[in-house]
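Handoff note, outgoing to incoming analyst
You'll be picking up this chain. Sequence as last confirmed:
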Amino acid sequence: MEYFVVIDFEFCKIPPQWMVKGKKFTDEIIQIGAVMMDEEHNELGRFNRLVRPEYGTVSPQIRRFTGISNEMLKEEATLASVLEDFASWIDGREVSAVSWSMSDHTQLMRETLVKNIHIDCIDRILGRWIDCQAIFDEKLGTTKPVSLNEALTISDIVFEGRAHDGLADAVNTARLYRRLCLEPDFRFNETYLESKKDTPIEPLAFSMASLFAGLDLSGLDLPGQDLSELPMNA
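Most recent structure output, in case you need it:
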């Protein structure tokens, strides 16, 4: 049987002084939300875990955006341990991962590489990844990627839960992906699209890069070292 795991990560930022040169490792995962579906896209279960970052911290901007604080993460496990639990939750199933855009795939690949995390289940998932955003954009006929919230509005799906919560974003991505796969006559909200006819569909409005654009971290008292030389957060 074929299975799908719809995944969404939330991140915190790593200060520039702590980045690994040439690795483009700028963020750390602080939440993993996921929904398991069978081949008929029936929901089988949910996974929701916070992750303690090892190098970065949650800024006030990220706290406002995600609702996650440094205090909430202090007693949580680090990524390697949470991914082991995630692999156990998958329970030997052969799954394809689904996410809204490929940014989560890129983050997981980079972070496991830099942190030297090797888990067979996770390595297999990285090789079986589906971009729900690309499927949606192709069906919509736009060359500009749209945000998940915009895609849900266009599809007449009301967002459930809190936006930018990892589990809520995964749940809503799963709802949209299910419709894209199961409804060959999938229809968009024509009234909404008509209202947007003279304005381009909004591109993805948020990225970590845009959130931290112009943010001056030079005044922070941080060592200018390679990440591999730094002590992990207690």
